[in-house]
């Protein structure tokens, strides 16, 4: 039986030749992502913003102004409305109730549910969640800390496992993937909650997994072809790992596509973040982090290395980077 090959074995693409365009595109997209995030902001969920969130599904697309007036008339605080998934599903955000206990929260939910069911026949109550302001602050701090520690830990691992150039290029690639994800959520205004933090950490894990495979092949070829130009070594290494990279990305994207279209609106933000992360992570591993090694001055033979005198086998045993 003939095996499926998405990338031919004799593929020989000059990836390094496009590194100038790739660096320019990466910088442009990163600046745009930061600008969009600062300008529009993230649509923080109740996990990070605190308060009460009620999800209702209407029989027909409702008039948001009328929904807001109905909710405001219940005396539970100023409501913030947003369509969620489709025009008929509305999330209603309310401030934390004054007493803050579970009884007050349940009473507010029942008020809103009853009022909307009366004003809009056929309305279906989906779910509600509540987080206090103190807890939301802790969740923001812990979420940011988790992402920062993950990036630093991965960078240090790459430095000790390979060379410092690999660590720097790894951090640059991961930060690029993170900025793309933030920009995407600022642009689409998908709800940003703890599920998305989990997606971001998963994206970082996938990105470093793909990059470590390529870096390991680069180091292996640096040992094997000590006199070869670094540009040729990187092109050779990326082309050798390209079938594995493409096949892994495609199989993961197939699973994510099923979740995106069939997993329901609850998983839509998580799945969208994962899908974007796989695409961006694959791009950054191939075009950004690998080619960046050249700009950082990585060489197959260190500059201070002097040829050994003696038998040819002595020279053959010399290797470039440390293990």
Task: Please give a handful of descriptors for the protein shown.
323 residues, alpha+beta, four-stranded antiparallel beta sheet, two-stranded parallel ribbon, 10 helices, 63% helix, 10% strand, disordered C terminus
Description:
This protein has 10 helices and 6 strands, in the order αβαβαββαβααβαααα. Helix 1 crosses helix 9, helix 5 packs antiparallel against helix 6 and helix 7 runs antiparallel to helix 8. The model is unreliable at 303-323 (pLDDT under 50). The two termini are 40 Å apart. A 4-stranded antiparallel sheet has the order 3-4-2-5. The protein is elongated. It has 323 residues and is an alpha+beta fold. 63% of the residues lie in helices and 10% in strands.
State the distance separating the first and last CA atoms. Answer: 40 Å
Q: From the alpha-carbon coordinates, what is the Rg to the nearest angstrom?
A: 26 Å
Helices, by number, come to 10
Q: What's the shape?
A: elongated
Proportion of residues in helical segments: 55-70%
Order of helices and strands: HEHEHEEHEHHEHHHH
> What is the tally of beta strands?
6
Order of strands, main sheet, comes to: 3-4-2-5
Structural class: alpha+beta
What number is the mean pLDDT? Answer: 77
What percent strand? 5-15%
Which spans of ≥5 residues are poorly predicted at pLDDT below 50? 303-323
Major β-sheet, in short? Answer: 4 strands, antiparallel
